[in-house]
Amino acid sequence: MELGSVLSAIGRTPMIDLTRLLGDRRGVRLMAKAEFMNPGGSVKDRPALYIVMDALRSGALTQEKRILDATSGNMGLGLALVGASLGIGVTLVVPGSISQQKLALLRYLGSEIIVSDALEGIDGAIRKAREIYESDPKRYFYANQYDNPSNLRAHYETTGPEIIEQTLGKVTHFVAGVGTSGTLMGAGKRLKEVIRDVRLVEVQPAEPLHGIEGLKNMYNAIVPKIYDDSFADVRVFVRTEDAYNTARVLARRFGLLTGPSAGANVYAAISVAQDLEEGLVVTVLPDSASRYIGLLT
Question: Is the pTM of this model over 0.85?
Answer without folding.
Answer: yes
